[in-house]
Each structure stands twice: as C-alpha cells, then as structure tokens.
Amino acid sequence: MTLEIKEMSKAYGGLTVVDRVSITMEDADIIGVIGPNGAGKSTLFSLVTGFLDGNGGDVVLDGKPLGNASAVERAQAGMVRTFQVPREFAHMTVRENLMAAAPGQGGENLITTFFRPASVARQEKEIAGKVEETIRFLKLGVVADTPAGRLSGGQKKLLELGRALMTGAKLIMLDEPFAGVNPVLIEELSQKIRELNARGIGFLIIEHDLGALSKLVSKLYVMDRGKLIASGEPAAVLSDAAVREAYIGGGAN
Amino acid sequence: MTGFAELLLSGVMSGLIIGLAGLAVTLVFGIARFSNAATGDTMTLGAYGALLGTTLTGSLIFGGLVGLLAGALAAVLSYVLVFRQLANRSPISSLLASIGLAFFVRAGLGLAFGHNQSVFQLDIVRPIRFLDLRIQPNDLKFAAIALVTLVIVFIILHMTPIGRRMRAVADNPLLARVSGIAPRPVMFTLWAMAGAVSAIAGIILGMKTVVSPEMGWDMLLPAFAAAVLGGIGHPVGAIVGGLVIGVAQELATPFVGFTYKIAVSFIVLLLVLLVRPRGMFGRVEGVR
C-alpha cells in the first residue's frame, strides 16, 4: 500500500492547528508522529480519517485521492484509526465488537437477511472464522464473551487493534497505543504491530513513549504547533537540536 | 377477587399494546437519538391500513399485513423525507418535526376516513372460563402476536448482521462510523422495524376497541412512560414497562375512574424520572 498525506490544513478562526502537513508512506511501513501536546497530531488523524473537515489538503491512498470522502467511506477504503482513550461498543461482547466491524456483510439489510438466509449464514460463518482468528492472534480468548466495557485498559487497546484488523484496513492509525499500558504489554503490542506490518498493513503511530516508538518505526515525523519541523530516521531526528528544543523543552540539554 | 383478576388481565392486555408502542419509541431513541412523537399516529395509520386491507380482501390476516406494511412504509418515508434531513442537527429539531408529522398524519387520516369511529368486524366468540376468570380468545391471540413481535425484534437485534450493526450504532455512533458501518441500511431497517411494531400495536388496539384518528395520539404518553420506565433503548424493558403501566392503569380505574386512568402513566413517568431516571433495565447514558 501507499499513502500520501498532502498539505493537510485545519484552522479554527485565526488559529491554524494543522499547517500544511505532508506525510508519505511508500509500501507498507511503520511511521511515527511525535510532538508536544497540542502540536496537532490527533487533529491530523481526524482530518485524514474524515472525522473533521479540513481547510485544504488531500489524502491519496493506493494512488486514489480521497477528496472529501466521508468518514465511513474512508474506513471502507481501508483507513482506520484508534483513539487516545480507547473506544469500544461497551454493551456488546468482544466477539460482537469484532463481528460488527467486518465489512461487506450480506445481511446489510433486512430484505437479504430474510430472503437469502443461506448466503447470509455463509457470510456469517466466514466472518466468525476471521473473528476467532483475530481473537487468537490478540490473545483475547478469555474475554471473548465479556461486554467490551468491562475490559481493562490494555485489553481495550488490543480490542481496538482487533477491530481495525476486522475492517480489513490497509492503513491503521494508532493514537497513543502505549499510553497507560504496562511494559510487558507494550512489548507484546509492538510485536503484533510488526507481525501485521509484515503482512502488508501500514501503520501511522502517534506516541509519547519515544523509547518504544523509535524501536518500532522506520521513520519519525515531528510536529510542533501545527507544523512539521523534522522528519527522518528515528536516531537522526531525536538528536536534532530543533526537535529537542520543541519536544523536550528549552530547559533540557 | 375475580374482579381484581379481571382488571389485572385487562391491564396486561393494554400493557402489551403500550409496551409495543414503547418498544417502537425505545428503538428509535436508541439509534436515531430522539423521542419520536409520531409513534402514536403511526399506530393509527397501521390500524386504518388494516381496516382498509380487511375491507378489500375480506381477511383479517391480510388486512393486518397491509396495516403492518403501511406502518413500516410510512416510518421509512418519514425518515427519508424528514428525519434524515435533520440528522445532523440537535435532537430537539427531530422531536419538534415529529410532533408536526404527528399532526399531519392525524389530520390526513381524519380527512381521508372521517372522524367517526370505525370497528373491525371480529367474530364474537364465547369467552373461555378459566378458574373464575373470563378470558376472551381474541385476547390470547393478541397477546401471542405481541410476544411474537417482541421475539422477532429480539432475533433481528441479536442474531442477524444488520441487528449487530444497529446495536453498534446505538452503542457508539462515532465508533461505528470509523469502523466503516454505513448508517443508511441501519437507519432504513430501524425505521421499518419501528413502523411495523407501531402498526402492530395500533392494529391490536383497533381490534380490541375502536379505530379513530385520535386513538394513537392518546397512547403516546403511556408509550413514552413505558420506554422511560424500562430504560430508554432497552427493548425488553419497554415491554415490561408497558405491562407495569397497563396494569397500574387498570387497577387504578376503580379508584380514579376511567377518565383519569391516563394520569397514572403520567405519574409513573414522573416517579421514574425523579427516582430512577435510567429506568428498570437501563444503563446510565453518556458515562463511558
């Protein structure tokens, strides 16, 4: 897959929170986006996933410009995001959460459900198979029938990743996947991300845990006050003076 | 004692009708997120549809199906023409529009069918004697229809892909969108279901009593009360809530008189909102 985020911008009145940010991903890659709080990272994700309408810019996924496609259309095109604070269908079980996200369900309406029950049942079986696979992959077996609202923070992060996988996403955008997650699970999550990337899924990751992130990504983009201020290999970027200034603050050395 | 039991029984019957109407209210509220004041008049429309269908085909069953389809179609149309246009505005816009729609439907039915009461020609059957109780065989059929309706709604919501998606949208609309769940099939199904359920409630009410343009509007407050009592967005809760209100209304009749029994549902509604706003089965909204 390829991704081109072209000159994305968002302004509220006179305040530009995302200022002509461009990010390119050639081939399925793992790319990190870092920056201090309020740098516009999450807003960028919202713009890319069609959650917010931008003031200019475009996203090109696999050579196809998305223009002003809606959030649903972007998700169906293969771009799925997670959230800083994990979100889930709280009153549905883990299994149902995953099943709901599977695309192209023949039983999309009542008419097919009632008049073509056999084909709907076949598709259900297929989806259920994929769900079991995802549950095994993420080791969510013990909580498969638990309402998602009752999961621990770490389990919710895994479920978010699972939901993104079930949509058949080509690009998964993770918003602080390691926040509030214990070190063992961080290692495990990183491993899952690498495995999925090896299968051809691209990742764009916002994260404050620079240690874990720089081990994972091939490239870092740094945002500060809405602008991209640096990009490149993690080691090079992190030793950049301007980045240290913006990210760690003036007092540090 | 027999008197009490018979009041209880007739309370259960009206409770099932109120519960079905409450079910329609709660379905729409859970997914489209507003209180649909046109629910009552969709009931009326269903009853007139059934009346017309019965006259044309001579069969109560076909007539009932005509009424059911009329209700479903009207509800889907109301979504396409009105509520979809208001979907991105505050829920108050939809609520107000639904009140307008309710007036429109009622006036339209009055214009088309007149304001006189009409009745279904049901065969008169000797009541069944059970212990000391007289039970109308038709009531048993109506109760069965109400329960089958509830079961079908439950099956659709919990055992079909579209139902799963409906619950996902009800649970977290924003997450549903980013997960690629298209809203349109969900909304069409929701409105068709809510319309059909309302129509069934209206048809049963019409068969048990009389059909008039105002019949459904009078059911709106009890229906809202049932939905709130059961916990808004909770289908089984709506039916149980309806039963509680129906029974409370009937049992109160000897004390407050027939005219004021509707006040009972208002009192129940007030008490629930004051004491347990999330209802019997409900969950706290907005805390995630």
UniProtKB/TrEMBL annotation, chain A:
Matching InterPro entries: ABC_AA/LPS_Transport (IPR051120), ABC_transporter-like_ATP-bd (IPR003439), ABC_transporter-like_CS (IPR017871), BCA_ABC_TP_C (IPR032823), P-loop_NTPase (IPR027417)
SUPFAM superfamilies: P-loop containing nucleoside triphosphate hydrolases
Gene Ontology molecular function: any one: ATP binding
ABC transporter domain boundaries: 3-250
Keywords: ATP-binding, Nucleotide-binding, Transport
Family: Belongs to the ABC transporter superfamily.
Official protein name in the record: ABC transporter ATP-binding protein
The organism of origin for this protein: Mycoplana rhizolycopersici
From TrEMBL, chain B:
Membrane topology: Multi-pass membrane protein
Family per similarity comment: Belongs to the binding-protein-dependent transport system permease family. LivHM subfamily.
Alphabetically ordered keywords of this record: Amino-acid transport, Cell inner membrane, Cell membrane, Membrane, Transmembrane, Transmembrane helix, Transport
The protein's name in its UniProt record: Branched-chain amino acid ABC transporter permease
Native source organism of the sequence: Mycoplana rhizolycopersici
Subcellular location: Cell membrane
InterPro entries on file: ABC_transp_permease, BCAA_transport_permease
Transmembrane portions of the chain: 7-32, 60-83, 95-113, 140-157, 186-207, 219-248, 255-275
A Pfam short name: BPD_transp_2
